[in-house]
Amino acid sequence: MTASAGRIDLVADIGEVLVSEEQIAAKVTELGARIGADYGDRRLTLVSVLKGSLPFMADLMRAIPSPVRIDLMEVSSYGGTSTESSGLVRILKDLSATIEGEDVLIVEDIIDTGLTLNYLIRYLRGKNPKSLRICTLLDKPARRLVDIPVDYVGFTIPDQFVVGYGLDYGEYYRNLRFVGVLRPEVYTGLD
Ligand code: IMP
Ligand code: MG
């Protein structure tokens, strides 16, 4: 069952604001400056994973002073549920340009088990970029199943299911300006 089956209330369904709009904006500025300091005037390709990373990508790219290009991939994990990823990944949209010999930075919304990113890293390494680093807005280390070397982390969060600023439950809540904890009663027993 998906969230679309019941009534969705963007205000009442949120139990707690975990990361506010202001905190996100300050962190994006900070990360952009750090990335700019690390890459300088080198060309950088940001690779983002749809759809959850869309707001973060849009904000982060404008905070990075280096010459950047962007590319977008879309993957879906199958065999999982709305709140659990399975690690089985299917590529729905591939890169539109080659990354061979390029400095590449993956821009992610959240790393949970790490299974999706683990797959993506192997896939992108196979395309022989000059370098491959990872930037994630949110990190949920409590649930990690594979070790992922993350270079830039926005916020480390506890093991709670969150929505907003791109993150969804059943494809909804992505348009919230903050990251909030979804009330468990919204999804408990529905998967
Ligand atoms: P992983 O493969 O378990 O690391 O999961 C990665 C993907 O699962 C993310 O890109 C999200 O789409 C989704 N995900 C993981 N945790 C959450 C959450 O708390 N809220 C919403 N989506 C999540
Ligand atoms: Mg999702």
Topology:
Layout: E1 14-19, H1 21-39, E2 44-50, H2 54-63, E3 68-77, E4 89-93, E5 103-111, H3 115-125, E6 131-139, E7 152-156, E8 162-163, E9 179-182, H4 184-187
Parallel strand pairs: 2-3, 2-5, 5-6, 6-7
Antiparallel strand pairs: 1-9, 3-4, 8-9
Helix pairs in contact: 1-2
Inosinic acid binds near residues 113, 114, 116, 117 and 161.
What's the gist of this structure?
With 191 residues, this protein is α/β, with parallel strands linked by helices. 23% of the residues lie in helices and 30% in strands. Helix 1 crosses helix 2.
Describe the protein in words.
This protein has 191 residues and is of the alpha/beta class. It has a single domain, classed as 3-Layer(aba) Sandwich (Rossmann fold), CATH 3.40.50.2020. The chain is 23% helix and 30% strand. The protein has helices at residues 21-39, 54-63, 115-125, 184-187; strands at 14-19, 44-50, 68-77, 89-93, 103-111, 131-139, 152-156, 162-163, 179-182. The strands form two sheets. A six-stranded mixed beta sheet has the order 4-3-2-5-6-7, sandwiched between helices. A three-stranded antiparallel beta sheet has the order 1-9-8. Strand 5 (103-111), helix 3 (115-125) and strand 6 form a beta-alpha-beta unit. The longest helix has 19 residues, at 21-39. Inosinic acid binds at residues 52, 85, 109-117, 161-163, 167.
